[in-house]
Amino acid sequence: MKDFRGTGVAMITPFNASGEVDYGALSSLVETYIQSGIDFLVVLGTTAETVTLSQEEQIKVTRKVAQFNAARLPLMLGKGGNNTRALINDLNTTDFSGYSAILSVCPYYNRPNQEGIYQHFSAIAEASPLPVMLYNVPARTGASIENDTVIRLAQAHDNIFGIKDATGDVNIGNALIEALPNDFLVSSGEDLTALDLVSKGGAGAISVIAGAFPKEFSQMIGLARQEDFSTAKQIEKDLLPFIDLIFREGNPTGLKVLLALQGKSENHLRLPLVPASQILQEQIKTQLETLTTKC
Predict the structure, then answer these.
(1) Cα–Cα dist 133/159, whole Å
(2) Strand partners, 133
């Protein structure tokens, strides 16, 4: 298995003005991330608006990113859901060429208890042809993978190799770091607390803001992993205002504003998401101008 330590970008799905996937922008983003020192890419996660893509679009995005990447970076593919049987069928029929792992979110909406969560991920682990990273994001799913369940899964299944912890509570991630072997990766899924978790031994981060500032964010995480926290904190200071702004009206709403201002993609989303308010767009623009002036 390829290593998924360091910084991964949670990629957007760029759309054009007609609402179709912009594969030209997608190619440019992949190239930008590769040239910026990112360690790996995460495709079709939450930030990609995956739930609004048709099955055909998901297949094409999966294939196109692998094609654009050309085996230069490890790729992780989002494969999660709240219908275990359908998800297993999907795992059995997907072409995973070019991908080295899957990221699987905690089942949402039907809110299973911990035994249900354990059995769900056990079934995924047994069916998946690729290693599995768990994804805990209770603010979105309405249910949380408790640490005892994570430990139980890690001990029962060799191909469950890590967790993306987007709880925002560093103590939860830190407890897992202390309880599990070093080869079980505890990565941050929360930009605001990513540096704190890495400073406590976290493996890295799967980041949203790295989509707009890939070089800076990957440098910050790299410095933290080398225990140069003072320099890492200086980079974080510049990123924190953007982290605050891009999540104010949801993800990837603010991120797409920022990417459009940077000329990396157009500011289009799919319903039920809508473009950021004019006020937020102006705030992001002002903050970007401030950063540019500073640099």
Answers:
(1) 9
(2) 103, 162
Among 51, 68, 39, which Cα is nearest to 13's? 51
CA–CA separation, 130 vs 257, rounded Å? 34
3-state helix, strand, coil in the chain (%, to 5): 50, 15, 35
Q: How far apart are CA 57 and CA 66, in angstroms?
A: 14
Using DSSP's 3-state secondary structure scheme, residue 99 falls into coil
Burial class (CB in 10 A: 0-12, 13-18, 19+), 46: buried
Q: Which residues are catalytic?
A: 135, 164
Residue range 6-226 in CATH 3.20.20.70: yes
| Chain-centroid distance, C-alpha 33 | 14
Q: Angle at Cα 69 formed by Cα 68 and Cα 71, nearest 5°?
A: 135
DSSP 13-41: --B-TTSSB-HHHHHHHHHHHHHTT--EE
pLDDT tens-place string over residues 75-96: 999 999 999 999 999 999 999 9
- pLDDT tens for residues 190-218? 999 999 999 999 999 999 999 999 999 99
1: Cα within 13 Å, side-chain hemisphere: 19
Nearest alpha carbon to residue 99 among 62, 141, 48: 62
Residue type, 61: V
pTM exceeds 0.90:
yes
Distance from C-alpha of 269 to C-alpha of 266, rounded to nearest angstrom: 9
- Every domain of the chain and the residues it spans: 6-226
